[in-house]
Each structure stands twice: as C-alpha cells, then as structure tokens.
C-alpha cells in the first residue's frame, strides 16, 4: 500500500518536518506510514532576483504571492504524487478545520498544502487550481506553515498503526461531537485534591456513566455551539457510548413530535 503522502508548498521548507519529526508523527514518518515533502516555492521563481511576490493591484499594504510562481509549484507537487490528493490553501478565509475534515483527509491518499505568506496568494491561481480553502481558526498567523503542521499532525495520528490504542481516537474530544471527560492519574490525592471516588471504585459501568455525564457537562458549558449541534442531531455528532462506540445521532425532538 502506498503511504499517505503530504506535499507542503512553502517559502520555508526547513520548517518541515519540524515538530512532526517527533513522537507519534515522527515515528510514523520513520516507519514509512506517511511521506512528507516540503517544496520550496522560491525554486519556481523565474526572474534573476528569484522573486515570488509583488505589490497588490489596487494598492494597499503588503505583498501578494504571484500566481505563475505558485502555479508552477503546484504543478510540481501534482506531478510528484497521486493527482487525486486534495489541494488545500491554508487561509484564515477558509472553512474551519474540524475533526470531520481531518478524518476525511486522513482516509484519502494524502494532501497538497499551500502555505501563504505576506498578504496571501493571488486569487486567480486559487480559482484556476480549484483549491479548497481551509482555516485552522479565527485568528491570523503570519504564514501558513504552523497551520500546515497542525493539519498534518491531526491527520497523521489517525493513520492506521500510528496511535497505539485505537479506542483513544474514538473517545477523545470531537470524535462524537462531545469534548472529552477529565483525566486523572496517581497519586489519588494531590495537594488536598482527591480523584473522583467513582474512578477508584473499579465499577466499569459507573465509571463509563460518570465519564459520559462529565463529557456532556463540559461540552454544554464550554461549547454551546457543539451542544446545540448535537441536540439537533447534526450529522456526525453521534455520542460515544461507554466504550467509545458511536450511537446513532439523536433525533431532533421537534421532528419526532411532528411524526
Ligand atoms: C498574514 S496571513 C494573510 C492574511 C490575509 N491578508 C487575510 O486577512 O485573510 C499570511 C498567511 O498565513 C496563513 N494563515 C494565516 N492565518 C491562518 C489561519 N487562521 N489558518 C490557516 N492559514 C492561515 C495563510 O496561508 C496566509 O496566506
């Protein structure tokens, strides 16, 4: 089987693998479970100054990455791997990255990620190449590289054989539209704070009930948006049961009433 393949188009190829060379992702990279190549956008500049950007038409601050240079870098990435890999431009204007998108990307052949810098990338190459625009959050980074690292980290840990215990992916935050319950380890008492008694009881069903209730409480308190989506039975927001297996999505109470 061919390894999941990530190509990152960047002006700073030396930033990769960076943190992805460590821990789970680093080991998986060394084991060949995924492949990473950083493609230097500047290598596709054609003038003698090797310029990759220019001033924006219409005026304004900052510089814009040129479409011809970016396009040539994209062509090289496509030629060097499965052309079916999604081509993603990381941008604060994109669709918010969530666990459903991560799962979808991890299940595919890999991805090609374009990291912007300065004011961003000329719109024409984004459109001409049909790029999917993805944001990692409602804030502005100085470049797409930290966003690419975050997206790749999230995908790689879901690849087969990367995480030790498959169950941990099923139970963790966002796996089923809930944030995760709190964790505790030894010592059972620390600075006068006791671990919740139920966790010491050895009663698996009680532990599972407590974890489920905590996951629901935390989601309700911290992320009313997720909670509302779950209550509305929104798509992939099924709740995990006590073993992390997903139940079918909850039905919308109003629709039930109408039936
Ligand atoms: C300074 S930002 C450009 C911001 C752009 N002028 C705007 O207001 O939308 C430079 C680059 O960082 C990356 N970037 C910044 N914030 C990001 C985010 N939240 N998610 C993904 N990429 C981001 C993008 O690749 C972007 O082209």
From TrEMBL:
<feature type="domain" description="tRNA methyltransferase TRMD/TRM10-type">
    <location>
        <begin position="7"/>
        <end position="228"/>
    </location>
</feature>
<comment type="subunit">
    <text>Homodimer.</text>
</comment>
<keyword id="KW-0489">Methyltransferase</keyword>
<feature type="binding site">
    <location>
        <begin position="136"/>
        <end position="141"/>
    </location>
    <ligand>
        <name>S-adenosyl-L-methionine</name>
    </ligand>
</feature>
<dbReference type="InterPro" id="IPR029026">
    <property type="entry name" value="tRNA_m1G_MTases_N"/>
</dbReference>
<dbReference type="InterPro" id="IPR029028">
    <property type="entry name" value="Alpha/beta_knot_MTases"/>
</dbReference>
<comment type="function">
    <text>Specifically methylates guanosine-37 in various tRNAs.</text>
</comment>
<keyword id="KW-0963">Cytoplasm</keyword>
<feature type="binding site">
    <location>
        <position position="116"/>
    </location>
    <ligand>
        <name>S-adenosyl-L-methionine</name>
    </ligand>
</feature>
<feature type="compositionally biased region" description="Basic and acidic residues">
    <location>
        <begin position="242"/>
        <end position="259"/>
    </location>
</feature>
<dbReference type="InterPro" id="IPR002649">
    <property type="entry name" value="tRNA_m1G_MeTrfase_TrmD"/>
</dbReference>
<keyword id="KW-0819">tRNA processing</keyword>
<keyword id="KW-0949">S-adenosyl-L-methionine</keyword>
<dbReference type="GO" id="GO:0052906">
    <property type="term" value="F:tRNA (guanine(37)-N1)-methyltransferase activity"/>
</dbReference>
<dbReference type="InterPro" id="IPR023148">
    <property type="entry name" value="tRNA_m1G_MeTrfase_C_sf"/>
</dbReference>
<protein>
    <recommendedName>
        <fullName>tRNA (guanine-N(1)-)-methyltransferase</fullName>
        <ecNumber>2.1.1.228</ecNumber>
    </recommendedName>
</protein>
<dbReference type="GO" id="GO:0032259">
    <property type="term" value="P:methylation"/>
</dbReference>
<dbReference type="Pfam" id="PF01746">
    <property type="entry name" value="tRNA_m1G_MT"/>
</dbReference>
<comment type="similarity">
    <text>Belongs to the RNA methyltransferase TrmD family.</text>
</comment>
<feature type="region of interest" description="Disordered">
    <location>
        <begin position="221"/>
        <end position="259"/>
    </location>
</feature>
<dbReference type="InterPro" id="IPR016009">
    <property type="entry name" value="tRNA_MeTrfase_TRMD/TRM10"/>
</dbReference>
<keyword id="KW-0808">Transferase</keyword>
């Amino acid at each position: 089987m061919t390894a999941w393949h990530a190509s990152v188009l960047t002006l700073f190829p030396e930033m990769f693998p960076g943190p992805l060379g460590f821990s789970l992702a680093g080991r998986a990279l060394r084991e060949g479970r995924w492949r990473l190549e950083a493609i230097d956008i500047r290598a596709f500049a054609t003038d003698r100054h090797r310029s990759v950007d220019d001033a924006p038409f219409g005026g304004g601050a900052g510089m814009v990455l040129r479409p011809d240079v970016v396009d040539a870098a994209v062509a090289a990435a496509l030629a060097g791997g499965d052309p079916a890999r999604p081509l993603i431009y990381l941008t604060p204007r994109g669709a918010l990255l969530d666990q459903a998108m991560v799962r979808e990307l991890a299940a595919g052949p890999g991805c090609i990620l374009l990291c912007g810098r300065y004011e961003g990338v000329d719109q024409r190459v984004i459109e001409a190449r049909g790029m999917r625009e993805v944001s990692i959050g409602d804030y502005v980074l100085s470049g797409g590289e930290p966003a690419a690292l975050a997206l790749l980290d999230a995908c790689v840990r879901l690849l087969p054989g990367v995480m030790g215990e498959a169950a941990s992916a099923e139970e963790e935050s966002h796996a089923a539209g809930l944030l995760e319950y709190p964790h505790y380890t030894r010592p059972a008492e620390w600075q006068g704070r006791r671990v919740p008694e139920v966790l010491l009881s050895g009663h698996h069903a009680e532990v599972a009930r407590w974890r489920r209730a905590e996951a629901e409480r935390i989601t309700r308190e911290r992320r009313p948006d997720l909670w509302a989506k779950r209550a509305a039975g929104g798509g992939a927001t099924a709740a995990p049961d006590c073993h992390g297996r997903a139940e079918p999505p909850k039905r919308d109470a109003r629709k039930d009433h109408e039936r």
